[in-house]
Design goal:
Layout lengths: L5 E5 L5 H17 L2 E6 L9 E3 L2 H16 L17 H8 L6 E4 L8 H11 L2 E5 L38 H15 L3 E4 L2 H9 L7 E4 L14 H7 L7 E9 L7 H14 L2 H6 E8 L10 E6 L3 H10 L2 E4 L8 H8 L4 E4 L4 H4 L6 E4 L4 H12 L3 H18 L2 H12 L3
Parallel strand pairs: 1-2, 1-4, 2-3, 4-5, 5-6, 6-7, 8-9, 8-11, 9-10, 11-12, 12-13
Length: 418
């Protein structure tokens, strides 16, 4: 296959949620004929072309950012970039001046500076794409802005720093320098959801940039290869039960909304008949840090799941519940739909694009615990045939808009001629 161009993916790590996204896009572009390089400071990807930057410099930058985190005067913690060591020469030395056509920025703060990006473009004429892994590229220092809308006016007066008294503080300066460079180099934004596309239009930093919506691709590894009963047998689960699955890597993070889920499940419990209760089991994945002992349901704690076990659990389950109240994804919603697993969730992140009421699951008003309880109850009381049809709808939608082939068709248009 002819080389369609050289792409460098800049992300601070090769693992975790951010690493999973960057790796997935790397693999998709590799299949399409692009030559890819992963520029990072942490992780280990032996099957990829990885360029490791100076780790000491990275940690010095992170520590400076974390000082601001400790100085936060509100429950919302921010880590604005204070200083980032120059890295463009290090990158060019390892990749080559004539070998960069496309630069994709994921979580790039403290890894490379905005000045590095500008220098790389000047020296290579590369096209730059800002991938909205979260809301960090929209703001001057926080990954999720929650109820704060300062990003619309360009940050400053940050409520997390010194009670919002500083008008042109570090968040303002970060937004201004990023906006200036992004506009000078004609960067483009790739938004993985409709809601992030709207937020990037509102953002002072990104408002004037060209934007495209393109959902994160998922490989064929999520395709069902066995029956649900076989997956359950593999996980030692009752083949005839009804399994409600949820989880997160850090379930005690407030934005993951586990407290809302617990309250919803308590309401659900009061509405279920005895026969319904007997067949329901909650599957919980992740490093809990959250107390589910107040629930009267049967519970199976799966702990941290590796990639294969996670996919097997999707296929063994009947419903995935996502209580996140602030999220760009979460990725588990994308993965559930690709696996043919219906979803009940709040109206955040990717749900607006792929959780379609009565078709692929149920999406309810954010933080409305009564509505979430009713949505779960509605799913439980569907007939077996109706649940099977919903699962088929998920598989079809997943193939239509979450597959590698659909991603590559769109990305070629976005990249244009190289």
């Amino acid at each position: 296959m002819n080389n369609k161009g050289n792409v460098i993916h800049i992300n601070h790590t090769t693992f975790g949620g951010p690493g999973r996204v960057a790796n997935t896009i790397y693999d998709a572009l590799e299949k399409e004929g692009y030559i890819n390089y992963f520029v990072t400071v942490r992780g280990n990807n032996s099957d990829k072309r990885v360029i490791y930057l100076n780790k000491t410099h990275y940690w010095i930058s992170r520590i400076l950012s974390k000082i601001f985190n400790k100085l936060s005067t509100s429950p919302v913690k921010i880590e604005p970039e204070v200083y980032c060591f120059p890295k463009h020469e290090e990158i060019l030395k390892k990749v080559g001046t004539n070998k960069i056509d496309i630069i994709i920025l994921y979580w790039y703060k403290n890894t490379v500076s905005i000045r590095d990006i500008k220098k790389l473009v000047e020296l290579t004429s590369a096209k730059v794409f800002v991938y909205l892994m979260d809301e960090g590229p929209i703001t001057g220092g926080c990954h999720y802005y929650g109820n704060c809308h300062n990003y619309i006016s360009g940050c400053g007066n940050c409520p997390s720093l010194f009670f919002g008294k500083i008008n042109k503080g570090i968040t303002y300066l970060n937004v201004k320098k990023d906006r200036d460079v992004f506009e000078q180099i004609n960067a483009k934004v790739i938004a993985p959801t409709t809601l992030s596309r709207i937020a990037s239009d509102e953002s002072y930093k990104l408002a004037n940039l060209e934007k495209e919506k393109l959902l994160i691709p998922l490989s064929n590894n999520y395709t069902k290869v066995k029956s649900k009963k076989e997956y359950r047998r593999f996980l030692n689960l009752d083949k005839d039960g009804l399994f409600l699955f949820f989880g997160a890597s850090k379930m005690n993070e407030p934005r993951k909304g586990m407290k809302y889920l617990v309250e919803s499940l308590k309401i659900l419990y009061t509405k279920l008949h005895k026969e319904e209760l007997e067949k329901i089991t909650l599957l919980i994945a992740g490093n809990s840090g959250f107390d589910f002992n107040t629930l009267n349901f049967k519970i199976v704690n799966l702990g941290y799941l590796d990639y294969t076990s996670l996919i097997n659990t999707y296929h063994a389950s009947d419903l995935f519940i996502s209580p996140s109240i602030i999220d760009m994804g979460p990725m588990m919603v994308n993965e559930s739909i690709k696996c043919g697993l219906p979803v009940v969730c709040f109206n955040v992140g990717v749900s607006n694009d792929i959780v379609i009421n009565d078709k692929t699951g149920f999406r309810v008003e954010t933080e409305n615990i009564e509505a979430m309880a009713d949505a779960i109850l509605k799913f439980i009381r569907l007939s077996t045939q109706e649940r099977d049809e919903m699962s088929i709808n998920c598989e079809k939608l997943g193939e239509e808009i979450l597959s590698v082939s659909s991603f590559n068709r769109k990305i070629k248009e976005i990249f244009g001629t190289i």
